[in-house]
Design goal:
Elements (H helix, E strand, L loop, with lengths): L1 H15 L29 E4 L4 E4 L4 E6 L2 E5 L17 E3 L8 H7 L21 H7 L3 H26 L7
Antiparallel strand pairs: 1-2, 1-5, 2-3, 3-4
Helix pairs in contact: 3-4
Length: about 170
């Protein structure tokens, strides 16, 4: 009898054990990244900008900088950074929830990137994964091309309609 109870207990115990499951999460936010963001990243939460020791939040499109002993979130950089050029300054991708909490780590780790201007940016890339950026969602150049194409297609459609209406009806005055 003890063997049956022990076997039943082990069996019930095995039923309650759930197998471990692995979960992989892949997030792509290329379309959210600004034109001046660095190329080569399918996902970026923040850019650390060593030249000004500040961050850019890719998802909220806000800068995060230290001011009066507090980290400020703002749509624009403060006037003291008015000479900072986001297109020609180095940015480091940081995928961490609140990187400014460990700012000393990032400042130390990326200090040698200050003053570098050799980074490829999305605006200048012709990589297929940045199609949205150069087809009108980023730098503005693509918008004109898309609009021109749509106008051409509309004109073609208008000419087709005119030909349909003109068949058998002679000339229009």
């Amino acid at each position: 009898m003890k063997k049956i109870i022990l076997t039943a207990a082990i069996f019930l115990g095995c039923l309650s054990i759930k197998p471990a499951s692995a979960q992989i999460s892949l997030s792509i936010n290329i379309g959210s990244q600004p034109d001046w963001g660095p190329t080569g990243y399918d996902h970026a939460d923040y850019y650390y900008m060593p030249d000004i020791d500040s961050y850019y939040d890719v998802n909220t499109h806000q800068y995060v900088y230290f001011n009066n002993n507090a980290w400020i979130h703002s749509a624009a950089l403060p006037p003291r950074y008015s000479n900072y050029d986001v297109y020609h300054s180095y940015k480091v991708v940081v995928n961490e929830r609140t990187p400014w909490v460990r700012n000393n780590v990032y400042r130390t780790k990326y200090a040698n990137y200050r003053g570098r201007h050799d980074q490829n940016i999305i605006r200048d890339s012709r990589d297929v994964k940045y199609t949205k950026h150069w087809n009108g969602n980023g730098n503005g150049k693509g918008n004109r091309q898309v609009v021109r194409k749509e106008v051409r297609n509309d004109r073609k459609d208008d000419r087709k309609d005119d030909r349909k209406n003109d068949k058998g009806h002679g000339h229009r005055d």
